[in-house]
Sequence to fold (908 residues):
Amino acid sequence: MTDAFIIVNIWSLQGILMTRIPGSRKEAWEKMMKESLCDAVIEVLKSHKPEKLTMERVAEAAGVSKGTLYNYFRNKEELILYVVAKTFEPLLERLEELVHASQTPVEKIETFVRMALSLPDTHGQLFRAILESEEGLTPKVYHEGAERRMRVVSAISRIIDEGIQAGGFRKTNSMKAAAMILGAVIGRNMLRFQSGESETSDEAAGEFMEIFIHGLVAGGGPGEVKE
Amino acid sequence: MTDAFIIVNIWSLQGILMTRIPGSRKEAWEKMMKESLCDAVIEVLKSHKPEKLTMERVAEAAGVSKGTLYNYFRNKEELILYVVAKTFEPLLERLEELVHASQTPVEKIETFVRMALSLPDTHGQLFRAILESEEGLTPKVYHEGAERRMRVVSAISRIIDEGIQAGGFRKTNSMKAAAMILGAVIGRNMLRFQSGESETSDEAAGEFMEIFIHGLVAGGGPGEVKE
Amino acid sequence: MTDAFIIVNIWSLQGILMTRIPGSRKEAWEKMMKESLCDAVIEVLKSHKPEKLTMERVAEAAGVSKGTLYNYFRNKEELILYVVAKTFEPLLERLEELVHASQTPVEKIETFVRMALSLPDTHGQLFRAILESEEGLTPKVYHEGAERRMRVVSAISRIIDEGIQAGGFRKTNSMKAAAMILGAVIGRNMLRFQSGESETSDEAAGEFMEIFIHGLVAGGGPGEVKE
Amino acid sequence: MTDAFIIVNIWSLQGILMTRIPGSRKEAWEKMMKESLCDAVIEVLKSHKPEKLTMERVAEAAGVSKGTLYNYFRNKEELILYVVAKTFEPLLERLEELVHASQTPVEKIETFVRMALSLPDTHGQLFRAILESEEGLTPKVYHEGAERRMRVVSAISRIIDEGIQAGGFRKTNSMKAAAMILGAVIGRNMLRFQSGESETSDEAAGEFMEIFIHGLVAGGGPGEVKE
DNA sequence: GATGAATGAGTCTTCATTCAT
DNA sequence: TATGAATGAAGACTCATTCAT
Fold:
């Protein structure tokens, strides 16, 4: 009974705080909530496979009710989209900063490879989660994913271009080379995730760099491949 | 009584013989049906994402009823396992033949890369389908998948070893290099599938080879990377 | 091929044997088959719960095909009805013989109790199986079951009547007493089946007889119960 | 920042308090719903045999949707387990009170017999339903059922022991005698259910008592049965 | 008559989403 | 706005029964 009274007060308090001052405070609240839900998604993915990522579990992990999720995200897809964006945005930013960093192109690429290969498993789960997000490849999912990939490829290609212009790199189609490099780290991550390999990302990165930089052929020089 | 005796004899004979002959025919039929269902799975995957691969849809695509599927496969997992095996087995065999083919190691690797990059999208879908098969990575799914991956990596590593011994290849850990190459083609395929790239597999293969063989660095020679 | 030829011969042979002489031989065949299927049902119930008694399993246990079952029984219910009849008929007959045997009424009842309590578990399963037979209490199932029960009760009541007339038994409504006795052994069997008791049927029978014959009250004499 | 702090506090408070109070109401609702679903199960069993007791039908009988059932019971087995417990618990309690009631042992047993024989048919159906619940005798079902039976047998045996000590009852193994009495009433109920007998439970109880107390044999005294 | 592949209704269960409070 | 009970559309799987050979 006493409790009930307090609740009413809190409610009205919240009502006042939340609705009277519409702008910043409300937005702050919404932002906090969204991030909280983000964390909840990541949390759930730590202990459940993507196909077991249910709204119920997310709500529970976030300490809110299922219905609340729908006040912040129209549906499951939007939630996941948001989480993915939130998760990869910092990585993208770091990558884009890397382009202009004061390192040699080789060092930059190595940094990227290390970064990518050290993404924790959760990120691999996220990749799968987004792929499975109900409706699947809706235009929205497709578009956002493609855009993000393009930013990665573009950043890497600019590093390669830098290498070419600086004279050290072989003249190659930088975009395609970048796409290959991205594919390589994605695939390598998938393999590691699937097979539970114990190889550290450091070891894997070393391997990658050796081949990316020098190729398989000793003294690969100007010698021609097939083409 | 005498009659009964005769009858029993006939009966047992009939039991044994009647089922023996239809045997070969039955097996042929079963094989045809299984392949037909395989095709149906592939067909469904052409227009649906793996999580929408339902027994219902497979049955419909195969032009049979749901129940029929269960006359050929104990459950969904077995169906998918079968399809995956059926699909990748020929590729594996071609790869393993390739190891002993009369080509240079570089040519062999290029052949593999071309082969792998020309896999239709459906194969990528299959990879995902197997990962999602109901409970996810059941022991069986995991084991078969891991085994198959191992065969691929092993075959590629033998090609690399050959290249190293023949003197042309840089001395590297062939298993790890092979795992990287496999990862690269898997990832590249994923990217192409996701982004609907129009690049032909031939172009992609050329790119791959150039970098795999010579590396990014011109005249990469014996120069050291970081390490 | 040679095999195929033999089969054709056997088939035509069977065709001749079976259809030319329509009466006895055909009936004998049918009877044998039916009994064989009966055994198969019992066999299945030894290793499966009644709800797992499928036509498939019965066919397999009988070494015939599923379709064949339907040449001898219109449907599952009829099959089970037949099995139940076949199984309990001998027991009923023994019971009815017992009525006229040269034993004291007490001995006769004890014999019945021992008989009933020593029915193997399979019989308990049969009871459940018949209760679950698809349509459940169809008029047919109901009628046959009721009739059989009535024969049991009737037989026991005649034994009791004999005891009353011979002077030893208390004057009671023999039909009701008989129904109670039957209920008691059925219930006792159910309990034993459910709880996996290890008590031998001999021990159980001793217990039963002591109470049935003398009652709980020492020197129960002519003393009145409540009524 | 300050704002954020306040918000967080409100939030956590709200989280805690908002769910506490509805708590009692929620629990009340849950209890009501569960009982409602219980009734629905009973209702279904009045017109369907246990094997036709489907979640669908229960939901329909309760006037809710199928999915709702799963908000209150994890699965069918739990639902049935709950119903059985709910149904038999009061009877068990009455029985256990009876043990210490101020009646003679004979009266107590008669009370129990009357109680047991007046159980509505639905209870018999429930017994069967629990036995058939999906996988059949799962450990949980088995254990709870066995425990409940044991409580009944134990209660009756204590009554018998009382009778023996008071001097009136024949010295017998009270547990076994109790098991027999329970078996007798269970079996008698089954018979009544199956055959649709119209005998009132009062008549049946009278019959039971006469035989249980005095036995079949007039003046059964200390006379020996077989053994 | 024997066969067994095909059928499809029926069962349990999950989960995204809605909506009254 | 938060809540969480209710919903119902799917989905995997079973099995009695049919029917072409």
Notes: Chain C has two domains: 28-73, 76-216. The two ends of chain C are 83 Å apart (CA to CA).
